[in-house]
């Protein structure tokens, strides 16, 4: 438990499990008869439910985006951006964050019990697409009584969900914030994902995805997957600044123990991840990334795919991000301009690579805050929130 | 066997094994009492042994750089650059290529028999450094009667050997050609190597490096190592041009079989490599890469480390190479200029990434050929080669 909750924190938060019983037809052709979504909400929904913000998570994210769970010393994964007075101001907005279907943090997914068998779904859990997630999130909005999001916000794989929202449900969001993302993966992106999948699925402890049944975990595969992923989240410059060629022992040891600081760091990150994340979920998330390509259904013309969107857009990229480089954001920018849409774009100078989207970089937070004031201004005038009245 | 040996090929070549019995003291503190080097030579050594070129190989290379082995349909790994009339013209030069110590193609290394035990060295083979290799290559030069190389040439890890030659033996080479290389690895380079090492050493079939004794091979680890390596050898642009998001079946299959062309390609490359390369050698080669840092002994001042070199230099880099980017070659360039040395530098526009250094890119071959005419011009006037007399 933290000694003291910071004053700009939303404080203690409690996840909620929401169960859905209407069958969900999926892109793969299969159907989820019933499913659960784990969510958290921060702030207060106003009377006409017009101040709601949806936060979509990236590959290894989940519903715990902000605040503290009782007993935890670390806050949610985007606490730097979400809270009272922060860029996504919980005094003004009702923020909804969920664990996506197929995740491993309590929503229906491979590590949860399949009601049909009484055992974990494992590899029987269907592969999910970004479109499927948006569909499940739309049902969540229905359940919460939110007809139109003030904004849908996401970074990386989360940005893809935000973009798909604008395409799938043009009337159901006023603003779309796509951060450090891309309209589709490159061959290189897919290649790195495939290395991760091979590392996991060829680990003898993977047991064709049924490792739960034998109380095993493909830890080596997950560790390797995370190590590769982590390198692509950081920039070459950022790694130089952080690790350089610093040696743990100060001299060459001529053995295969970690020698340079960067080796220890990666091993530590990989090993920690391998004990906290589910291997089947990792496989599923990388496939959802690979498959995302909204332009594919519009003759590979992204502007055409975006022709019917109504949301206003903020796109943000980071100079040293080579996983989803600024060039990838500019492809979305160009398509939105071609389609005649309202779009703002910011390229933030940051040495941290793709990871920058999770960090409280001042200019980035300023941009987000400034744009969120536009989102606030677009809340219909008849609305009021309890928090605003108090403020 | 090829239907017909191309007319610009050196033709059939036969490797030679050369045994050394004088102990070799290594950087790690250990000593190799005796060792073997597998070599190939192309062209004819002139009377005063002044037309000899040493070719140093990269991570997965070996002595078979040019020409054909009887029965093979593919030539050596740098046949595009070495042969009669080619950039490194075997009508003019006597070209020497070797498999480095610790390699897995016949030189003393982990997969060769340790005379002390009668079993393969395995993990008992000492870790080698670039400096150790240069020392062994200097002894090879002695054996061949070559007091001074007309040039030492290498790409990638081979370029590091060429650079180290200029530092270790200033009097023993007139020209130094360092292609797509770096004066030291970056933290990112080391990180990718560490992923490869973890993949191999954590493969249950690795048996702590003694897989020969149990007739096993860590194929998954080697496959993963090669897949990661291969991604870093290609450029993002090059992969887009080569694979894009082309699908094998034309539609999404929602399973974990290779879906995109790039996945099949990488798996194929990885699997092929895993049956042809030795895992202990891969570990050793990546460590030699990590450890190379000639400036470290000169207060991390590369210009100082190069103060005593006498060779003239050609540096070549490739625009889309992100493993050893043009910036890394310019670090060597700047240091050589600071040290007042004779250096030419060419940055070749090529979409193929690091792999470009192995390819017959016209401008690259032209640059190499033009520089080699300088190397030829610096052969002492009293010399003559049989080939020159014939020409």
TrEMBL record, chains A, B:
Catalytic site = 156 (nucleophile), 321, 354
Tell me the organism. Neptunomonas phycophila
Write the Enzyme Commission number(s) for this entry: 2.3.1.46
Using the UniProt record, give the first listed, main subcellular location: cytoplasm
Quaternary structure, from the entry: Homodimer.
Q: What is this protein called?
A: Homoserine O-succinyltransferase
Which reaction does this chain catalyze?
L-homoserine + succinyl-CoA = O-succinyl-L-homoserine + CoA
The protein's location, in the record's own words, is:
Cytoplasm
Q: In which pathway does it act?
A: Amino-acid biosynthesis; L-methionine biosynthesis via de novo pathway; O-succinyl-L-homoserine from L-homoserine: step 1/1
Pfam name, any one: Abhydrolase_1
Q: What class of enzyme is it?
A: transferase
Looking at the record, the residues that make up the AB hydrolase-1 domain are: 51-357
Q: Which family does it belong to?
A: Belongs to the AB hydrolase superfamily. MetX family.
* Role of this protein: Transfers a succinyl group from succinyl-CoA to L-homoserine, forming succinyl-L-homoserine.
Alphabetized NCBIfam families for the sequence: homoserO_Ac_trn (TIGR01392), PRK00175.1 (NF001209)
Q: Superkingdom, according to UniProt? A: Bacteria
Which keywords, in A-to-Z order, does the entry hold? Acyltransferase, Amino-acid biosynthesis, Cytoplasm, Methionine biosynthesis, Transferase
Q: Which residues bind substrate?
A: 226, 355
Q: Which molecular-function annotation in GO is an example for this chain? A: homoserine O-acetyltransferase activity
List the residues marked with site Important for acyl-CoA specificity. 323
């Amino acid at each position: 438990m933290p000694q003291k909750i910071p004053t700009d924190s939303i404080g203690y938060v409690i996840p909620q499990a929401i169960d859905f019983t209407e069958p969900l037809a999926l892109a793969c052709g299969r159907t989820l008869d019933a499913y659960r979504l784990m969510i958290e909400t921060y702030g207060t929904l106003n009377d006409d439910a017009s101040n709601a913000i949806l936060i979509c998570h990236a590959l290894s994210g989940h519903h715990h985006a902000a605040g503290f769970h009782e007993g935890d010393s670390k806050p949610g994964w985007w606490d730097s951006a979400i809270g009272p007075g922060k860029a996504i101001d919980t005094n003004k907005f009702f923020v909804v964050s969920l664990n996506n279907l197929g995740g491993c943090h309590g929503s229906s997914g491979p590590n949860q019990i399949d009601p049909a068998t009484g055992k974990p779904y494992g590899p029987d859990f269907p592969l999910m697409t970004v479109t499927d997630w948006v569909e499940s999130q739309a049902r969540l909005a229905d359940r919460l009584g939110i007809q139109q999001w003030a904004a849908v916000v996401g970074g990386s794989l989360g940005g893809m969900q935000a973009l798909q929202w604008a395409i799938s449900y043009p009337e159901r969001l006023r603003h779309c914030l796509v951060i450090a993302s891309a309209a589709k993966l490159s061959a290189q992106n897919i290649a790195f994902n495939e290395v991760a999948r091979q590392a996991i699925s060829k680990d003898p402890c993977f047991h064709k995805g049924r490792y739960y049944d034998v109380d095993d975990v493909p830890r080596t595969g997950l560790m390797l997957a995370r190590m590769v992923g982590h390198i692509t989240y950081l920039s070459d410059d950022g790694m130089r600044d952080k690790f350089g060629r610093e040696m743990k022992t100060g001299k060459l040891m001529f053995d295969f123990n970690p020698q340079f600081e960067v080796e220890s760091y990666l091993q530590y990150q990989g090993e920690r991840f391998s004990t906290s994340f589910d291997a089947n979920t990792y496989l599923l998330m990388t496939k959802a990334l690979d498959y995302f390509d909204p332009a594919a259904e519009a003759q590979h013309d992204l502007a055409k795919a975006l022709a019917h969107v109504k949301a206003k857009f903020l796109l943000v990229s980071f100079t040293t991000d080579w996983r989803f480089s600024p060039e990838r954001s500019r492809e979305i920018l160009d398509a939105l301009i071609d389609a005649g849409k309202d779009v703002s774009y910011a390229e933030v100078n940051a040495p941290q690579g793709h990871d920058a989207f999770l960090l409280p970089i001042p200019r980035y937070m300023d941009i987000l805050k400034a744009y969120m004031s536009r989102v606030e201004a677009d809340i219909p005038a008849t609305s009021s929130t309890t928090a605003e009245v108090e403020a």
